[in-house]
Amino acid sequence: MIRIHVVNPNTDAGMTRTIAEAARAVAGPDVVVDVERSDSGPASVESHYDEALAVPGVLRRIDQAEQTGADAHVIACFGDPGLLAAREIASGPVIGIAEAAMHQAVLVGRSFTVITSLSRTAGRAWDLAQAYGFASRCRRVRAVEIDVLAIADPASGAWERLRAEAVAARDEDGADATVLGCAGLAGLCRAIGEEVGIPVIDGVSAAVTLAEGLVRTGVRGSSRGEFAPPPPKPYTGGMAVFTRAGASDVTRGCALRQAVRVPAARLSGSSARESSPSGSLRD
Fold first, then answer.
1. What gap in Å lies between CA 92 and CA 181, rounded to an integer?
2. Which of 20, 49, 221, 272 has the greatest CB tally within 10 Å of its CB?
3. Strand spans (E) along the chain
């Protein structure tokens, strides 16, 4: 049995259900897909500010799923928030839906266009295409100009706008495929593809199938270099819950070094002051 953990970085229950339906529709018969939303953070992710504040909740959910035996993780937001940090703390693969969708798009065509929810997020989509090595194959980033949480509302016109942008991607951009740049658009993927006649790729489906394939072939996350577990150290204040095992040893080591340094400083006639970390520590 393979367990794939999917985390929605926002806190919206309706969007989480849409993600769950898309994820479970493509999983194999021996795959358990656990889908959950963040327990803290924004209701939707539509800005850099939202994305930054979504990351702690994502990391907490992934850390919890690691403790319950998840074989792989999927971050179901097109900004791939916290992806690299999550790879440091997970033993198995961690897949972002943007990276997965772009990889899938270049396997079925030479070029693709991203269709996202709001044009204000287009810059982030371009940043990711560049980071993942696909900038030269991304024709354009289009937007349906509908707030993320309104997409599921039939009155929003999401279907009509998405279809129109997909047709424009095919006819104006010359794209061989389109990538849906929002997890909330997942439910419209297949029908739009049949309408416009080119592949329309949903990142949730792409990420789940990629994660499943990696687990089946025995590929785990790298644990060397920048993806080694983060060095243990104390975190304070509201971040104290992120303090990892071994941090108490680091704190004791710092105190010991301080005790050694202080007499030397006094002998030289100078004074040395070091503040101790505040807040509770969790080993």
1. 25
2. 20
3. 2-8, 31-37, 72-75, 94-96, 112-116, 138-143, 177-181, 200-202
Helices (H), ranges, 34-120: 48-67, 83-89, 97-108
CA atoms within 13 A on the CB side of 124: 25
The encoded tokens of residue 31 equal 């795959």
pLDDT at 195: 86
Provide the total of helices (H) and of strands (E) in the chain, helices listed first. Answer: 9, 8
Average of per-residue pLDDT across 246-258: 49
Query: CA separation (Å) from 7 to 23, 29, 111, 129, 261?
Result: 11, 21, 29, 22, 46
Its pTM stands at: 0.86
What is the structure's pLDDT at 251? 47
User: Is residue 194 exposed (0-12), middle (13-18) or buried (19+ Cβ within 10 Å)?
Assistant: exposed
The percent of the chain in helix, strand and coil, each rounded to the nearest 5, is: 50, 15, 35
Select from 74, 60, 95 the least CA-distant residue to 24: 74
The beta-strand segments (E) located in 188-230 are: 200-202
Q: How far apart are CA 47 and CA 5, in angstroms?
A: 25
Give the pLDDT band (50/70/90) at residue 108: very high
Amino acid letter for position 28: G
165 touches 117 (CB < 8 A): no
Per-residue pLDDT of 60-91, as tens digits, reads 999 999 999 999 999 999 999 999 999 999 99
DSSP state of 243: P
Distance CA 93, CA 219 (A): 8
Q: Which of 42, 6, 46 is nearest to 22 (CA)?
A: 6
Report the distance separating Cα 178 and Cα 27, nearest Å.
22
